[in-house]
Amino acid sequence: MTVLGDRWISVIKTLREATGMTLSEAKDATAEPHFPLVSGRSQDAAELIAARLRGAGATAVVRPMAD
Length: 67
Known about the structure:
Elements: E1 2-3, H1 8-19, H2 23-31, H3 43-56, E2 58-59
Antiparallel strand pairs: 1-2
Helix pairs in contact: 1-2, 1-3
InterPro entries: Ribosomal_bL12_C, Ribosomal_bL12_C/ClpS-like
GO cellular component, one term: ribosome
Keywords: Ribonucleoprotein, Ribosomal protein
């Protein structure tokens, strides 16, 4: 996930709502572009979270879990 411009506050809020991360965890996640945000969830759940993040101003990519 990457955050462009001044939308990072909105992305952090959305990330916290969608994942239950603490403020510190969400800030760290937005600072690292390849930070895995969600694991152990269904593909559909991951797509919904990615869509919410995109709506907030982030660029999010859903990748399948490696076995």
